[in-house]
Every structure is written in C-alpha cells, then in structure tokens.
Amino acid sequence: EITNINMFSITLSASSFLPPTTTNLTLRNCNLFGFGFHFFDGVTNLQHLDLSSNSLTVPYAGSTTQSSCSNQFCAIETLNLTNNSLTTFPTVVLNIDNLQELYIAHNDITDFNISNSTFNVIQSLKAFESDLPDTSAICPGGTWQTAHSSKFCVANSTIAVSESSSGTCTQCITYVGIIGGCLIVALIVLLLWQRARSRRRALSASLVSSPSSYYLARSGNETVNIQISDKSTAEALLEDPVIITNRINYKEIKLGKCLSRGGFGLVFVGEYKGRQVAVKKIRPERSQDPKDVKAFLKEIILMAELHHPRIVEFIGVAWDNLKHISAVTEFMESGDLRNVLRSFKRQGTPLSWRNHKTTISLHIAEAMQYLHCHNPKVIHRDLKSKNVLLNMHLEAKLTDFGVSRTQYTVQTHAMTAGIGTSFWIAPEVLLGRDYNEQADIYSFGVVLSEIDTDDYPFWNDANRDGPRGKLQEADILRQVATGNKRPQFSANCPAGVISIDSPVAVCTMRWCVWLSLLLSTSAAQSSSSSSTSSSGSGSSNGSDAGATTKAEILAQDWFQANSDENVTYLAVGVNSKLSNITDGDIICGKGVPSLQRRTTAALPNNGCPAIFTALNGSCTCLPDYNTTDSWEFFVTKKTTEIDYPLTMNDTEVLPIDTIRTLLVPSTVVSLSITGVGDGLQSISFVPQDVALPGSNIPVAVNADDARDVSSITAVRLENIDMSLIVMNTGHFFPSTTLNLTMRNCGLETFGFDFFQGLKTVEYLDFSENNLAKPYAGNTISKTCTTQFCAVQILNLTGNQLTSFPSVVFNLDDLSELYIRNNNFTDFNVTTSVFNSISALRAYESDRPDDSATCSNGTWKAAHRVKFCVLNDTADTEGMFLSGVFVFGI
C-alpha cells in the first residue's frame, strides 16, 4: 500500500516495479495520471486494486472483448477507481471474469446509458458504487433501471421477438418476412457500397484536377496562395512535401492506453524509438469520411510548421493506410491544465500564483504571442484549459490545432462561427460576427479565471451554489453574448490580472511583455496607500530615528557609491556587513528582500528610509519572505524606463537589472530564481561589497547571524543567461549547497573557479543547456577529485554531449543518470560501464538507431536501453576514458 506519495514520474518511467507475487495493491492519492508500458510487468495475480483519489482518465483494467481478458488485471476481484477523472462509464472493466466489487463514485461521468448485458453484469456484482445521473437527465432510447442504488438508462432491445408461432400460415409469413428482410438489407448494403465507391472515385478525380488552396494574410490585404494537397489516396499523401518530410515509420510506433477521446479523434500514449510520445488518430467511424481525413492532414501540416518551446513538439506523421493516420507529438506527463488544477486542489495543495500559476500563465501567453506574430498569423480558436498541457515540471505548452486557422483577408472571408468549446468562446463568435485574434485573447482571459479559481469557468465561487447543467449553460452563454456576464476571479488574484479590461487594447501589445507587466505591477493609485503599511518597520526604521546616526551616514555613502543610476537591484538591506554598521538591515527590516533604485528624480518612498529618499533612492519591500524558509523569485529583465520599482506583492514578476548578494537570514534553506519572459533573461549578479565577508554570489550570511556559513542547501537558477557569468566568477555558490539546478541557463562551459568550495552536492541538474561534456566524474576509475564527488543524481538532459559520458560512472555514489536528448549515437560500452548502468536506480537516454551494429560485442539491455557491450578480450577500457576530463576546459 502506497498512500499520499507523489508517484507521478515513477509510474510513467519505472518497469517491473512490483513483486510478481503482489495480489493486493493500493496506490491512493499518488498524483497518478497514467502508467508507463512496463510498470506492471510481471504482475499477473492482482486480486484487489485500489487506484482511488488520483487523476486517471481511463480505468487501466479490463478488455474491449466480453469475457476476455489478456492484460495484467485478469484476476481482479475488487477495483476501486473512486475520485478520479473518468469521463465515460468504464464498461471494459466489466469484462473481467472474476470482478465482484467496483467503486467509481466521484468521477466526471455524466452518461449512464448502458446496454442490457452491461446492466446485468452490474446487478450480479457483490458491491457497486457510483454517482447518480443528474435529475434532469433523460433516457430516450431505453428505460431507467436501478442496481445497487444507482440508476441507469438501459437501452431497449432492437429485436422484437414474436410471441405467437401457431399455424402454418403464420410460420410461412414469418419465413417470408425474414427472407425478404434479409434481401432488403443486402440490397441496401450493396447500394451504400456502390455509392461510397463512386464518391471516392469522384473525389479522387476532383482532387487530382483541382487541388484546393487557402489564403494566408501576410500584412494588410496582401495574400499568398498556399497549395495544400487534399488527395485522399495513400499515393497522394506522398506527394505533399510537408507530409513527405515529416513521415516516420508506422511500424516503429507502439500504442498504449487511450488518454482522451474527442468528437474527432483519439489520443494514445505511445512509444517511438524509445521515447514516450502521444499519438493522435482519427476516430475509426470518422476515418471513412474523406473530409475528416483532409481536415486531419491540414492540422498535421499546420503542426509541422509551428516550432516554439511553448507549442507541443511535433515529431512526425505515420500511417500504413488512411484509417491509421497518426500524428506523433511529445508526451506531456502531467496531462492537461484542467486536470492538474483539479488534482492539486483535491489533494489540499492547490497551486498558487507564487509557485506555478504565474509561470503557467506566461507560458500560455508566449505560445499565443508566437501564433499571433507568426507569418501568416495563426488563430487557435479553441484555447481552453484542456488544450494546455503540462510536463512533469508543470511547464505549459499549447496543443490541439484541429480548428485553428491561418487568418484570411478579413474583408473577403467571414470567420466561421461556433468554433471552440462553449464557455471559452468570445461574445463576437457566439453572435456569429466576424472575428480575429482578439477571440483568442478573450479565451485566454477565461483560462486565467480557471487558473485563478481552480474551477470550471463561470461555475466557480460566484456560482458554486447554482445547479450545473445544459439549461444553465445556455443561460450563461446568453449573458456572455450580451455582455452581462464575465469570468469570475478570486480575491487573491493579482491585481494586474483583474485589471484586464479591454481586449482591443491588449491585442496591439506583445503577449509576453503585456502579461509579465500585468503580473509584475499594480495600478499606482490602488497600491500607493497599501505600500506604506506593508513596509512596516522598514519605513519607521529610518524616518522615526530622529537625528541621522553614524550607521545611517555610512549606509548613505555606501548606497550612493555602489548604486548605479537607473539600475534596479534585487537585494536584502544595504551592506549591513560593514564593520561600522551594527543595527542590522537598514531597508525594510531584518531579512526582508527589496527592490532598490537610485535615479535623478526622487521616486515614491515605498519602504525606503528617508535617508535614501534624500539620495533619490526608491525601494519596494517584498512581503512574506521573512516568514518562509524558501525564497523564490520570478524575475524579468527591466525593459522600459518607467518609475521602477513600483509597489509589488509577493506573487509578481520582478522587473530588475541586477541581483546583489542576498544577505539571507539563517532560517532560509532554499533559493530559487527563475527568469520569466521571451528567451533567457540577462540578469547580472554583483557582490554587495568586495570586502564583504563570505560574499558568495548570489547568497551570503546575514549580518545578524552568528554563524560563519550559509544555511542554504538548495539553489535553483532557471531561464537566466549565465553563459558569461560562469566564465568570469569564482566561488559563486554557498559551500553548504546540496541540491544545485542550473536549467536552461545558456551554459556551454565553466570557468575554473566557478564551482570552487562545493564538495557536498548530491543533486546536480544541468539540463537544457549546451554542454558538450558532463562536468562530473573523473578519468580514473572509482577516484573522484572534482567538486561533484558526492553527486547521487545527475541530470544532463537536453545538452550537446557527442559521446557517451562514461566518466560519470566513476562517481561512487551515483544512483540516477538522465542524458536523454543529446547528440551521441555511439552506444558501445565496456562491461564495467554496462554493469554500472545496470546498477543505477534510474537511467534515461535516447536509444541507438535501428541500423546500429555491434560487431565487436553483444547487444544487452539495461533500463529499456540497448547497449553494445564490447567483448572482454578487447582492450577497450581506455577507449572510453581516453577523452581526458579536466574541469573547466
């Protein structure tokens, strides 16, 4: 039994996780969205399975064939799927022969229409629990029946059975009727077949003679005619350049469970060349329609043209026939935004604007900016929380371009009304009027309300006591269309988000700049009154002191000498480590970070003592940091010379130029600085003072702390341009650091002194950089002399490694290694290296190409990756250690 443990990544990546003797398994409230292909390998005797209080959308048990079971769950007697995210009745689980108890209450199931045979199976269960259908639900094709206190709409039988069989004449009539009916059915089938055949021939001919096209607006009224191949035969698909370029081998795709079902398509989790992927296919019943096939191909062509970090990556298109056309994209482990918000809220740990909501919102904005600035402009037309996917780090990307379109010249073509899902549709679309990208901006506002309230749009706090159903939905949409209803936001929503009022004004601005400013500033009028009170002791510390003290004079001198004009600093206090200053932090009070700026004109005094105002200094105190042991800052490069810093709160993005050494209190153990905005943020780091004892960048010990070392054990830098800093700075991190992350920081190499002082790092994450070497390990077996000798977990995913990093296996304590998405293609390893890989607790990398050969060894697998293990007779040990590793070179 595993309860209240985050098993999200483990269930997706681990194989043969459970002992084969397992008969009772509970994974309750473990943040489960799905399972990898091999998680349950070896388990065939499960009898009691409890997956309650997770976010599963499919039951992961049963079979589509009645009374036939071929997966790991054939012996299940009790299945508990309570409190998940099932949207359809899990009929497949009823095909488990031994099933006796089924619990599916508190899911999202609204359709209780079932067949008579399914109803009979439910009746025969020893125990069954589910929610009840809505009181307004109707049963037009059957009758309401009750089993285990639950109501079902049981479909009526379609075959009428005659109750009279007496008399030869009656029998003859019956026989004639049966034969005649069969003939009629056969004739209808024949006519339909001929008609379909004629349609396909006519369509194929018309497509060959006149391929369709659509018009894309480049600028103004200028249009360019783009030819899109709409031919419906497999041969014609090969003629389209985009399809040809992006086609991959259908046989290399391994399909897993169906993750979601829409009116048009199905999305499966899959595997392609060792990589977990998502595979979208047309629903079988719609794959017969050439129009649907063409629509899907147009979506694929559009997906292939979009390349942005905030758009779900398109990997390729595959098929063996037109019924099996598959769009293969990257797999987003956390699922869609709606389910993530719901899951965290249900677990009692809802996301906050400070820890994730701001980043998710900015990621969506970056995607929309890319689409709307694309040439030609792309309008998504179906922006909603279900179409925002998140990876394991809760980074958001946009998906589902099935109804997206490139913008026509508006004067010559009216946009189609009714596209999108009801509550996210802009009023002008509901009214059938022409629309443009502003419709996406409205939809984004609705998504922001979901992010803020963790609830369905228009059905959140202001409507929580009202009924939920189609009648209310129609009424809500009427009010939206007439401008009488707007999305609701919570009282804790950042003021910048609530201030969104006019989509017309917003659409002319760049998305990311607009949103980051909204999240990083408040209206000056509404904030000026609260700033004085929030600054608290910071203001009184200077203004109430009466005569200027010697310490304050020294602080004035230091501030004036060390603060460049018009540069906004993130700092804690001023240089309170100077020997003459003993009163602790001067600005904002002890242990409170602030933004500080010196300019030619005095700015509003938002917590800055009067002595600094006299020097044209301005400060903004950041509240709540003195009550937490984890400091997290979201920063963006200051882009405009407005009156920075404005009054801010702890949920917002800080527009700054520089981070001074942060004099952290002894209670702080974790520091995270994340860049927000378009590309890497060019934030500089400067020490408080060259004479400052222990002036590590970016943190040092606070003056009021008697200890000589920092308490910081975890440092995370992400989306900050560190490429020059790492070459020119020494002793950058506190020596107490155990967990170190420098993710997406533009790293290519390191200066010799950058990591000096680090000897105890156990978790090291250099992912999403441009490193050509692992920067950990040593060429001498089982001997480590670098700063990272204690590393247990090493993440080098998404770098530029060109050869297999064998040197890292000389780290004695290494237990996890992640090197996926690099550039090495040689998987030849020695026996000792292979044994080291096998002994790891976790390992991820790309897989060798199918055409790879192993002439000097034997193919062996470890962690689902094949390696060519060289023969022991060959003197190869030095081959893989020949690239002598010298730190910093």
Automatic annotation (TrEMBL):
<protein>
    <recommendedName>
        <fullName>Protein kinase domain-containing protein</fullName>
    </recommendedName>
</protein>
<dbReference type="InterPro" id="IPR000719">
    <property type="entry name" value="Prot_kinase_dom"/>
</dbReference>
<dbReference type="Pfam" id="PF00560">
    <property type="entry name" value="LRR_1"/>
</dbReference>
<feature type="transmembrane region" description="Helical">
    <location>
        <begin position="173"/>
        <end position="193"/>
    </location>
</feature>
<feature type="region of interest" description="Disordered">
    <location>
        <begin position="526"/>
        <end position="546"/>
    </location>
</feature>
<dbReference type="GO" id="GO:0004674">
    <property type="term" value="F:protein serine/threonine kinase activity"/>
</dbReference>
<dbReference type="InterPro" id="IPR001245">
    <property type="entry name" value="Ser-Thr/Tyr_kinase_cat_dom"/>
</dbReference>
<keyword id="KW-1133">Transmembrane helix</keyword>
<dbReference type="GO" id="GO:0005524">
    <property type="term" value="F:ATP binding"/>
</dbReference>
<dbReference type="InterPro" id="IPR008271">
    <property type="entry name" value="Ser/Thr_kinase_AS"/>
</dbReference>
<keyword id="KW-0472">Membrane</keyword>
<keyword id="KW-0812">Transmembrane</keyword>
<dbReference type="Pfam" id="PF07714">
    <property type="entry name" value="PK_Tyr_Ser-Thr"/>
</dbReference>
<feature type="domain" description="Protein kinase">
    <location>
        <begin position="253"/>
        <end position="578"/>
    </location>
</feature>
<dbReference type="InterPro" id="IPR001611">
    <property type="entry name" value="Leu-rich_rpt"/>
</dbReference>
<dbReference type="InterPro" id="IPR051681">
    <property type="entry name" value="Ser/Thr_Kinases-Pseudokinases"/>
</dbReference>
